[in-house]
Specification:
Layout: H1 12-19, H2 25-33, H3 36-50, H4 66-86, H5 91-96, H6 110-123, H7 126-137, E1 143-146, E2 162-166, E3 171-175, E4 183-184, E5 195-204, E6 207-217, E7 230-234, E8 247-251, E9 254-257, E10 267-268, E11 274-275, H8 285-315, H9 334-369, H10 376-404, H11 416-428, H12 433-452, H13 462-466, H14 478-505, H15 510-516, H16 518-543, H17 548-568, H18 570-576, H19 581-599, H20 602-607, H21 613-616, H22 627-636, H23 647-659
Parallel strand pairs: 1-5, 2-5
Antiparallel strand pairs: 2-3, 3-9, 4-8, 5-6, 7-8, 10-11
Helix pairs in contact: 2-3, 6-7, 6-8, 8-9, 8-10, 8-11, 9-10, 9-16, 9-17, 9-19, 10-11, 10-12, 10-16, 12-14, 12-16, 14-15, 14-16, 14-17, 14-18, 16-17, 17-19
Bound molecules: ligand FFI and flavin-adenine dinucleotide.
The site of flavin-adenine dinucleotide has 23 residues, from strand 1, helix 11 and helix 12.
Length: 661
């Protein structure tokens, strides 16, 4: 663990950086993990897994064929699954660690361990959970979540796969009527899984009841052959995550028992009678919890990237800051600090906010089990917003970190390219970001309209109702900046709603007016979510009980986060009149001071993320800072370096060279 390693064994620059640490690193690590006990358990699991040679890669993933990449990751993940069973480690516990970083190129069991398991927990009846839960836990059944089709991912109501109930046999008939009805994308579905939760349009008693989840066995549990009536395969190379065998699936009048409809929220009786759920969107529940999980998952990618880039920036010397003086660490350049430090702050802001949403999720789930769905829209809004903003910020942050490492950041061995391809996938999957931000906006507009009419609105949007008169913020304290976010968000919602109404008054129908305002609506969704994150970050920092040094650094990080996002979004603040041009100049000056102060703590701050070298897997970011030796050693692994003269010379280059002689 970084904090107890001491200074020995690392390059001089890092030793010096660490010697200046002004806070208790362990306290910060505990905050990020969510508590001391969780840190202890995480380290136990990571020690157990990282010490195991079975997870070592003999050849870097990038040199392997598509099939060998897949086979390697399946070997590792099966070993991981066996070790988890042996040591009694649950999927949830695995989620608190970064152990899946040992899989370099995606996790073929990822969907099984997340969405499939969560769908059984959240959508299956207790009887169905007894039937499949244990089999899934033992990995006898390996499942995925098959919702997206070639023709429709975003628009779930547009799914074409049908599940038609046949009361004579008490079965559903699953069918893919068109090419666009082909299920397309589910992780692990191509070759790994033998089952899936399939979302299909439920037809019973001659009526379509909309998309519903079904448990479907896809392969023979003994031979692993695809069952008759089903066509399965892998969809081919992707930008990243190439070992995840994302698959395609088609049904040809494939029959499953009636009791395979997941029946926690809605049921079909033997005679075909349909029993409605208490809320029509309860069958979308698995996506909600996964969105929170993904928010955390992509921040972990950002934490890796910023650890790599910060350590590298302390080791790398380039150019002259003062003519004639030795080349400084690139971390001395203010522009470099601006590239890195706000992303260190982001890790805290996003993790703490995602945790807040996770606790709302816990409460709402308990409410739903008691028949109360009042808070579901709020949870949908929060989880959509946090997923979208976290994916966007993490992806931009990872890319900035890559650029901050110059040429070496472009090397696969830096790990930054693969961190980027996995982070950016989170912008698309589990609800495309724009679409999710529009869902947030939908809720904001609806709540604002209700508030104007004096109707009650839920807590996270009650500020829209209060809508304080626009005034210039007299001071620039943290509280004032959070309030400025709130006021600007309320003001943007008000302005956008007025535009929407104006277009409707001019004769446009509501959907077209909505579309005409949708660029602004996405901004509403984003600004509201940013306000939520700022508010959560500040209140977590204010209430946390830690030593003075740790509190000091957290306050400084929180301040940087607020100032950074206020200056980045300055148009909103100027437009709403919450901040003046003079305020923004003051904040920009303060930003310079904050960067200079935090620069001294940059390396200890990323050390506090406590990411082991095996899990960071980077030539540029290892704890000891031996960047150049590692880069050289990795280059030697290139298969082209096995011979001095490559085969291509004899086949192509030599004839070319000789011909021109
Ligand atoms: C530190 C704490 C940590 C704790 C964390 C905990 C850890 C545990 C987790 C572990 C995981 C780790 C991660 C592992 C990695 C996994 C990898 C995943 C791979 C990716 C898998 C996938 O990629 S899998 C496919 C996902 N594919 C979508 O994501 C489709 C998007 N598309 C839609 O989601 C709908 O299509 C869309 C747009 C809403 C419209 O839906 P629609 O057309 O039916 O609805 P409308 O727009 O007409 O809206 C009508 C009204 O429904 C309301 N409403 C809509 N949705 C609602 C909802 N969910 N709940 C309530 N209300 C909802 C709406 O707000 C309206 O309300 P109102 O009328 O009152 O205004
Ligand atoms: C790596 C990866 C893994 C995945 N894993 C799974 C899985 O395990 N299971 C599964 O079921 N699916 C999975 N998916 C699919 C994923 O959920 C969908 O790709 C995602 O929901 C987006 O849907 P789409 O591809 O149909 O995009 P589209 O909806 O076609 O988006 C294309 C563009 O249209 C825009 N757009 C669409 N609708 C609107 C609108 N209403 N308003 C404004 N703009 C709009 C979008 O913003 C985007 O710019 C995965 C995808 C990826 C990339």
């Amino acid at each position: 663990m970084a904090g107890v390693k001491g200074a020995a064994g690392c390059v001089e620059e890092l030793r010096r950086e660490r010697a200046g640490c002004s806070f208790n690193m362990e306290e910060l690590t505990n905050i990020l993990d969510g508590g001391k006990d969780i840190t202890t358990r995480r380290r136990e699991i990571e020690d157990l897994m990282c010490g195991d040679p079975a997870f070592k890669d003999e050849v870097p993933t990038e040199y392997l064929s598509h099939e060998d990449r897949y086979t390697t990751e399946v070997r590792k993940v099966c070993h991981l699954a066996r070790k988890m069973a042996q040591h009694n480690i649950s999927s949830r516990e695995l989620g608190i660690t970064s152990v899946t970083n040992l899989l370099r190129d995606g996790n073929p069991l990822g969907l099984h361990q997340s969405m499939f398991t969560n769908a059984l927990l959240g959508l299956a009846s207790p009887e169905q959970q007894r039937r499949w839960g244990r089999l899934a836990q033992n990995n006898t059944i390996i499942g995925t979540y098959a919702q997206t089709e070639m023709g429709h991912g975003t628009f779930i109501r547009g799914l074409e796969t049908t599940a038609t109930y046949d009361p004579k046999t008490e079965e559903f008939i699953l069918h893919s009527p068109t090419i666009t009805a082909t299920k397309w994308w589910p992780g692990g579905m191509g070759k790994t899984c033998n089952a899936a939760i399939v979302m299909a349009q439920l037809h019973t008693q001659d009526e379509c009841r909309g998309p519903h989840p079904f448990f479907v066995q896809l392969r023979d549990l003994d031979t692993h052959h695809t069952l008759p009536g089903i066509t399965l395969g892998e969809i081919g190379p992707r930008l990243g995550l190439n070992s995840q065998d994302n698959g395609y699936l088609r049904f040809d009048h494939y029959r499953i028992p009636r009791t395979n409809l997941l029946m926690r929220h809605s049921q079909v009786l033997q005679d075909g009678t349909y029993i409605k759920p208490i809320h029509t969107k309860l069958s979308y529940g698995t996506m909600i919890v996964t969105r929170v999980g993904i928010a955390v998952l992509c921040v972990k990618k950002l934490a890796c990237a910023v650890t790599i880039a910060t350590r590298y920036s302390a080791v790398r010397h380039q150019s002259e800051l003062v003519p004639g003086e030795p080349e400084p660490q690139i971390l001395e350049y203010q522009t470099q600090q601006y590239k890195l430090l706000p992303h260190i702050a982001s890790v805290y802001a996003l993790i703490l906010s995602a945790r807040s949403v996770a606790s709302v999720h816990g409460k709402v789930t308990a409410d739903i089990s008691r028949g109360n769905v009042d808070f579901l829209p709020e949870l949908h809004t929060l989880s959509s917003g946090i997923k979208a903003v976290s994916a966007q910020d993490s992806t931009q942050g990872v890319e900035t970190c890559r650029l901050a490492c110059g040429g070496h950041g472009y090397m696969a061995s830096s790990r930054l390219p693969s961190l980027y391809t996995s982070a950016t996938s989170c912008i698309t999957l589990e609800g495309e970001n724009t679409v999710l931000l529009l869902q947030v906006a939908r809720y904001l507009i609806k709540s604002y309209r209700a508030a104007v009419k004096g109707k009650p609105v839920l807590p996270s949007v009650s500020y829209l109702a209060a809508s304080p008169p626009v005034h210039h913020t007299p001071e620039l304290s943290n509280k004032a900046l959070v309030e400025a976010f709130r006021t600007s968000s309320a003001s943007l919602v008000r302005e956008t709603e007025a535009n929407l109404q104006r277009l409707c008054d001019m004769g446009q129908n509501y959907p077209h007016a909505w579309n005409s305002c949708s660029v602004a609506l996405v901004r509403c969704g984003e600004l509201h979510t940013r306000y939520y994150i700022c508010e959560r970050f500040l209140s977590s920092v204010e209430s946390v009980a830690v030593s003075e040094g740790t509190k000091g650094i957290l306050v400084c990080l929180c301040r940087l986060y607020l100032v950074y996002h206020v200056t980045l979004n300055q148009g909103h603040f100027l437009r709403s009149g919450t901040l003046s041009a003079a305020d923004l100049s003051t904040l920009e000056e303060e930003m310079s001071d904050l960067l200079a102060r935090l620069r001294k703590q940059a390396v200890p701050l990323v050390d506090a993320f406590d990411i082991r070298d095996e899990l960071l897997a980077s030539t540029l970011g290892a704890w000891d800072g031996r960047v150049y030796e590692r880069l050289y050693d990795e280059a030697l692994k290139s298969p082209l370096n096995k011979t001095d003269v490559p085969k291509a010379y004899y086949k192509y280059l030599r004839p070319l060279i000789k011909a021109s002689l």
